Write a sequence for this structure.
């Protein structure tokens, strides 16, 4: 009997020592190069299909890490040629896009934490995580998948009867793109606010900002109550559901980048559906604010807005700058610090040849004369670029939206 117990223990110990990687879940992506079972090192790279966007997103589950045992995730950039400016290139994407200073991990698949800063080793970066005895989920940044949209919308509806989920469209691959409408306005045709995130599927941080905004919007906060009593607000947490669900990068996907699809003949049904809803608000002269949430490049040190300088005319220009000032006033006071710039960057021909087909440009061209149309970039290489930091930005973005609408409604129309 004693021998049997000893054998069983031995079997358990050897099973526990066997590191295993899986990605067969929503948003999962990793191409495993090698697993060193002795040194506990997993060598891998992102597994996205470059035809479905920049292969910089990765998200894997690791089993077999014993409690208090350290595992090293040794990440390389994808070695597949990527696309850029709407064309195939013969070169892989710069690996820095796939290599946040700190990776994100979870022991329950829900609560996401930063690893310590990764160590660069020539072309690779090494992240170390200490096991708890159970599975570990490790990702480029905090994952947010269509299932998280479902949870967010269900919780918002439970919290506030005036919050109603809707299906914006079915994607090209048949998945639902879902959003939330919130309004307790009693006046007819209140100002319309439209916020969407994740036109680029790898940019998961933008979803957490949208989530923070949504949770604030349905909360008991006095400014949230004011906004929903005086506006009609729409939030779509994930636009490119197909690539977010399949763990692909989305940006620069074929046949079109999702955020270069905003013309008269969009390829993506969710872009066409968003255009239709935005046009309806414009027709009633009430599209007040349009926000497109993204993540910027690896070296960007602050949150910042992007505005469309070449298409903007007055009174749009003044309104955009007023919104940026309100947002800066709120977001720059977040503790712990979230670096925020009060100087918007601009897009135009020098940024991308298809700049006119970006959603914020399309809204500038098709909006009301005083519509605010902006992109907000969420930094990801900073110690407070966490789910709580992003949530705080979403909340303060909400308060800034209330500040803006309240200030505007107190003044006669320009
Ligand atoms: Zn983007």
């Amino acid at each position: 009997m004693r021998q049997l117990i000893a054998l069983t223990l031995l079997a358990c110990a050897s099973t526990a020592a066997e590191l295993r990687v899986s990605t067969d879940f929503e948003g999962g992506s990793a191409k495993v190069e090698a697993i060193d079972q002795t040194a506990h090192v997993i060598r891998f790279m992102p597994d996205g299909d470059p035809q479905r966007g920049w292969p910089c997103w990765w998200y894997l589950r690791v089993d077999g890490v014993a409690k208090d045992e350290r595992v090293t995730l040794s990440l390389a950039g994808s070695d597949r040629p990527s696309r850029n400016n709407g064309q195939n290139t013969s070169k892989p994407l710069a690996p820095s896009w796939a290599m946040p200073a700190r990776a994100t991990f979870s022991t329950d698949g829900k609560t996401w934490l930063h690893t310590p800063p990764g160590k660069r080793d020539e072309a690779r970066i090494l992240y170390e995580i200490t096991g708890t005895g159970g599975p570990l989920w490790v990702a480029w940044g905090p994952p947010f998948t269509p299932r998280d949209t479902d949870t967010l919308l269900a919780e918002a509806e439970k919290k506030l009867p005036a919050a109603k989920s809707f299906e914006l469209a079915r994607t090209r691959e048949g998945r639902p793109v879902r959003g939330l409408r919130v309004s307790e306005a009693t006046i007819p045709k209140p100002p319309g606010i439209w916020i969407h995130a994740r036109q680029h599927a790898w940019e998961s941080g933008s979803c957490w900002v949208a989530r923070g905004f949504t949770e604030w919007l349905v909360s008991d906060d006095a400014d949230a109550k004011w906004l929903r009593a005086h506006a009609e607000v729409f939030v779509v947490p994930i636009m490119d559901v197909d690539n977010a669900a399949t763990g692909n990068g989305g940006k620069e996907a074929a046949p079109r980048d999702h955020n270069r699809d905003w013309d008269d003949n969009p390829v993506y049904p969710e872009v066409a559906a968003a255009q239709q809803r935005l046009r309806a608000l414009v027709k009633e002269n009430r599209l007040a604010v349009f926000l497109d949430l993204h993540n910027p490049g690896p070296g960007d040190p602050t949150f910042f807005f992007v505005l469309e300088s070449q298409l903007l005319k007055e009174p749009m220009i003044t309104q955009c700058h007023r919104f940026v000032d309100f947002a800066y006033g709120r977001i720059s006071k977040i503790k712990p610090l979230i670096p925020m710039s009060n100087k918007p960057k601009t897009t135009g021909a020098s940024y991308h040849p298809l700049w006119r087909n970006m959603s914020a440009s399309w809204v500038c061209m098709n909006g009301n004369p005083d519509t605010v149309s902006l992109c907000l970039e969420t930094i990801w290489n900073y110690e407070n670029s966490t789910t709580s930091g992003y949530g705080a930005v979403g909340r303060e973005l909400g308060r800034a939206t209330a500040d803006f609408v309240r200030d505007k409604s107190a003044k006669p129309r320009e």
Remarks:
- The first strand starts at residue 20 and ends at 22.
- The two ends are 88 Å apart (CA to CA).
